[in-house]
């Protein structure tokens, strides 16, 4: 692994987007309406090439039994499990509206259940949801079918149900194994519980298990986080997602319950990140990019090596870039050259569906400029290389002239050894992969005119 010094981490630790899309979701506008979205769906239906492309589905389940104080997701805290049943009815209505637009039986190669807590649903409700999806779409036999799992809501029997329903990938929310940190964020779950679930998942034949970790949480120290890292290495999940905690209590109400004085300082956070990079590398994990690690034989690491990596609203993926249908409250979708987002409150989401309308309330129709820059940013984020000729042929432009300002701005990153700018390409260095957000930001035209970057998390 290339050495990443704390000084380098500190130098490029600036606020910036995560680029699960470009333009980013904060650029969505209410001027993009349901009618605009319906037009994009119609273009897919009548376009032979688009119809032959598999779909990706995201289903948002917003319910959680208890509140995690660090959480910035769209969720509804409730112990009333009976609320799930009417929500499934509304999901069914939303799916029916899509079927009216696209027809039944569209091939799906990727499905992701997120939240909230998808395992808030009972086994029977999960069966009902999957039966609903299978009636409406054709799930490809070699697809990726993932579900986010709160370890406190499942046991081995529930994991067996998930396998029976066709899920082949799990993502466990761990965050930290230290009991004091868990108390501080209101998410207590013994390490033994996670280890038992991982063992059960392997016995059931799940293809891949991911573990989410967060550094920068209250009461964390470099020493305590080292112990968590050691446990994760012992657990040996196929994938690890390591996120920096962004404390934005003015935006996310749950975070107001976190005691600011208990948060680790900037130097401690940098120490945790630096140590994480070293420990995971020594344990044999490949750095995929953007906080993600994978064992060398995992399809994500293989796709990275082979230049087949893609990125969508769920993060890195092995699936080719395809249209994404977002189902449920606040879900985000991508169809053609458009992005869209559903209503963020349950009342508005249900009200739209009661009117027989798709619950899209905002989005974006991409301009040619957006799509050119998206091609460059996604090539950097996924392949770590932009070949000028490929952009020139696809978009009929002179790369060096078109991006003259950006190429000049890259010089600082090149001087730091993070990127190489050649006569015919831009290449992210091994060290530069840890700063790929900063490299991508150079090509973000919206950021150049934006003085309010504080709405983004810091990139380190």
Q: Would you summarize the structure shown here?
A:
The protein has 460 residues and is α/β, with parallel strands linked by helices.
What is the CATH first-level class name of the largest domain?
Alpha Beta
Looking at this structure, what is the CATH superfamily of the largest domain?
tm_1862 like domain
Give the count of helical stretches: 19
Order of adjacent strands in the largest pleated sheet: 9-10-8-7-6-5-4-1-13
Helix content: 25-40%
Structural class: alpha/beta
- How far the N terminus sits from the C terminus, by CA atoms, comes to 18 Å
Largest sheet: 9 strands, mixed
Strand-residue fraction?
15-25%
Shape: globular
What does the average pLDDT come to?
92
3D architecture notes:
- This protein has 460 residues and is an alpha/beta fold.
- Helix content is 40%, strand content 21%.
- The protein is built from 19 helices and 19 strands.
- The strands form five sheets. The chain has a nine-stranded mixed sheet, sandwiched between helices. The protein has a three-stranded antiparallel sheet with strand order 14-15-16.
- β18 (419-421) and β19 (425-428) form a beta hairpin.
- α4 (84-102) packs parallel to α5 (123-136) and α9 (222-235) packs parallel to α10 (266-282).
- 43% of the residues are buried.
What secondary-structure arrangement, pairings included, does this model have?
Layout: H1 6-11, H2 34-46, H3 48-52, E1 55-61, E2 63-64, E3 76-77, H4 84-102, E4 106-115, H5 123-136, E5 137-149, H6 156-164, E6 169-175, H7 179-185, H8 191-203, E7 208-215, H9 222-235, E8 239-244, H10 266-282, E9 286-289, E10 292-294, H11 299-306, E11 310-312, E12 315-317, E13 324-327, E14 332-335, E15 338-342, H12 346-354, E16 360-365, H13 368-382, E17 385-387, H14 388-395, H15 399-402, H16 404-409, H17 411-415, E18 419-421, E19 425-428, H18 436-441, H19 445-448
Parallel strand pairs: 1-4, 1-13, 2-3, 4-5, 5-6, 6-7, 7-8
Antiparallel strand pairs: 8-10, 9-10, 11-12, 14-15, 15-16, 17-19, 18-19
